[in-house]
């Protein structure tokens, strides 16, 4: 039985246990292979060359396209998570100092290789980058709540992506096995047809040689 789709809606691939459930003759092979390829790759078709051999069009690029997108998303989330955690830790540290009277001296990052010194007085307000060159001020409690929710959402998103990647790899393997089984079934049937044809030719030659 095929697995149900993921909660994010990624469909499962058909599992070909018996090739005869999908093809009944060699005439069905090419459409079946084409259909399997279209399930996984809308731009990958399977046909025959001028010798009659199958053209293996064919990696499961539809699933692979989703896999590549998820891999990029995983990389982005793994880059983002430490930044969110570091910002949240900083906000919590500043929150602990709201009742202090002395400023603290620190350095902050301007870019990858440039830092500047700063004095930070006790404060109950912080500024957060929201993206798209937008920065907003928040009361420190609201900033902590916002960052905590963003961290939780990012961790959940990363977990979902990794789960979906495992599912996609399984579906890619399933489709590769399905294509191989149908292809091999066709090779066996072709060999049987050839043997039968040679047997019939042998009978014809034997009959014509009788007086």
Write a brief caption for the model:
The protein has 211 residues and is of the alpha+beta class.
Describe the structure.
Helices cover about 55% and strands about 15% of the residues. It is built from 3 helices and 6 strands. It starts with about 30 loop residues before the first helix and ends with a helix. With about 210 residues, it is α+β, with helices and mostly antiparallel strands. A hairpin with a 2-residue loop joins strand 3 (about 105-110) and strand 4 (about 115-120). The longest helix is centred in the C-terminal third of the chain and has 69 residues, at about 140-210. The chain is rod-shaped, with a radius of gyration of 31 Å. Strands 1-2 form a two-stranded antiparallel sheet. The chain has a two-stranded antiparallel ribbon with strand order 3-4. Strands 5-6 form a two-stranded antiparallel ribbon.
DSSP E strands, number: 6
Assign an overall shape. Answer: rod-shaped
Q: What's the arrangement of strands in the largest beta sheet? A: 1-2
Derived structural class: alpha+beta
Overall helicity: 55-70%
Q: In percent, how much strand structure appears in the residues?
A: 15-25%
Largest sheet: 2 strands, antiparallel
SSE order = HEEHEEEEH
Count, helices: 3
| Cα distance spanning the termini | 61 Å
What would the average pLDDT be, to the nearest integer?
83
Uncertain segments: 42-60
Alpha carbon gyration radius: 31 Å
